Every structure is written in C-alpha cells, then in structure tokens.
Amino acid sequence: MMTEADTCRKYVLPKLTQAWWDNDPHSFTEQKTFTDGRIIGSGNKVRRRPQKRADYLLRYTRDFTIAVVEAKAAHQSPGDALAQAKEYAEILGLKFAYATNGHGIIEFDYTTGEEREIETFPSPDELWQRFRNHQNISDEKTAKQLLTPSNHLTGKSPRYYQEIAINRTVQAIFEGKQRVLLTMATGTGKTVVAFQICWKLWSSRWNRTGEHRRPKMLYLADRNILIDDPKDKIFAAMGDARWKIENGEANKGREMYFAIYQAIAKDERRPGLYKEEVAREI
Q: Is 158 helix (H, G, I), strand (E, B) or coil?
C-alpha cells in the first residue's frame, strides 16, 4: 500500500512539474512548516501544539505565495485533504487551495467560492491572472510592482504572517489607498515588516505622482533607540538613502528619513518641522 509520501513523490511532484511550477521565477516548497505550534500553559508546564506543515506551497515568485496543496495517499479520496488545504489557505491568506491523492485533484477557489474537480494543476500564469482579476489589478506596472522582491540579506526573511502583512499593505498602497493600519503584538516583528514595506516601495520606485523616482518615506518613533537601531541595522541595506532628522535639519536629497516625534513637533524655538515645506516633500 502506497503511503502519502509515496503518492507525493510518484504522482504529485510530476503533476506540479508538468504545470511549470518549477520554472524560475515560479517555484514550490515541499513539506513547509509555517508555524512553530501554539504555546499552551498548564500549571508550571509549557508545551507546544503540533506545528502546521503544508505539503506544498506554490509560489508565483519567491516572495509571493499563491496556493497550497495538500495530499493524501493514493488509496484515499482527494476530498479527504480538502478541509486541511482550506484551513492552511485561510491561515496563509491564499486564494487557491488544492487537495489531491495523486490521481484526482479538487480545487477550491476563494476568488469565486467555487469547488471543482480538475485533471491538472493550473499553471502559475493562470493563477496569477485569476488573482489579478479578483483584485482588479489591470495595470501591468502595478502588477510588476506588487511582485517586487523582499530583501533577504538582512538575515530576517519574513515569516508567513509578516509576508501577508507586507504584501497586503504594499498592494493597498499601489491601489491608491491613503491610510493603512497594521496592528501587531510586541515581538512579532513590526520593524521587519516596516523595513520590507519600505524596501518594496523604494525598490519599485513607487511614488504618489507616478514619476520614475524613488519615494521619500518617514519612519517615526517616540524614542531615539527605536530609531537608531533600525536605521543602523535592518535599514542598512538602503545605504546613503537614509537620513536621521535632528535639530530641525532634514536633508532634501535623501529618501528614507528617521525621526522621533519631538524632532518634528512644534516647540518654543520653531513652529514644527512637519508644517514646513521641506517636511511636506518627504
């Protein structure tokens, strides 16, 4: 009797390959653990629940996961894996979930709410086009900007929930939304998320006017340590584009600005840097 691992190796992998999911920049990751397991406290003891592990995550690009595939052994029904595939898709914020036993494939499409049996996996371009249609991304420039790679040289590649926050925020900005609010608990990587959002906007040369230039961005906090550490470490990849606003001085030739609230606020010596023309250009 074939096991689930046998089914994946003999049937599922060839089907994914035939659908062009191993052709750069498209890819898939196998047996991908994306949570560490919920921490459960009981008296003086602490334990973790089992990790969540997807059989396959399909990536349109390295930093844009688009679908999840869950597999069962060949002697089982492909529908036996559908509930788990949908659960993982919802956790990961994905629009497409697939369940298979290596022979049959069931697709659940969150863009339409439809469930159907299919013979082969859709290609990367087909899923990307369906995603774009659902999100009303008709402009090629916006689509290309949305796929701007993250920066992995910081040693802090985004975790799954950070990737969701980054991509959704960037998409909202590209769609012209004026305000976006992210709420994240302490210790969940707010600085990493902020850096990757800034990096994508900066690298794609997005700006409000549509000109071919990098945007000017302002990173605010209430204490110098919360400014200096990110500026000198995580944001170091932005090189000379960085500038810390101090003593009322904002160099207009830079692009990534850092400041504490007090540095741009009104006081007895100045009306508030945020009111001045130089600040409005940032």
A: coil
Q: Is 105 exposed, middle or buried (0-12, 13-18, 19+ CB in 10 A)?
A: buried
Closest by CA position to 242, among listed 216, 261, 220, 221: 216
**DSSP state for residue 32 in the 8-state scheme:** E
Tell me the β-bridge partners of 111.
none
Q: In angstroms, what CA-CA distances link 24 with 61, 120, 143, 153, 158?
A: 8, 20, 18, 20, 21
Nearest to 169 by CA among 182, 158, 156, 160: 182
Q: What percent of the chain lies above the pLDDT cut of 70? A: 93
Per the listing, tokens 């995580």 go with 234
**Burial class of residue 239, CB neighbours in 10 A (0-12, 13-18, 19+):** exposed
3-state secondary structure of 202: helix
> The tokens of 182 are what?
């992210």
**Three-state DSSP class for residue 214:** coil
Residues 6+ apart with CB under 8 A from 57: 28, 29, 32, 34, 65, 67, 68, 69, 92
Distance CA 257, CA 273 (A): 13
- Within a 10 A sphere around the Cβ of 214, how many other Cβ atoms? 17
pLDDT in tens, 185-239: 999 999 999 999 999 999 999 998 888 899 999 999 999 999 999 999 999 999 9
The residue assigned the tokens 């086009």 is 129
State phi, psi for 47 to the nearest 5 degrees. Answer: -140, 165
Q: Is the peptide bond before 149 cis (omega within 30 degrees of 0)?
A: no
161, with CB counted inside 10 A (0-12, 13-18, 19+), is middle
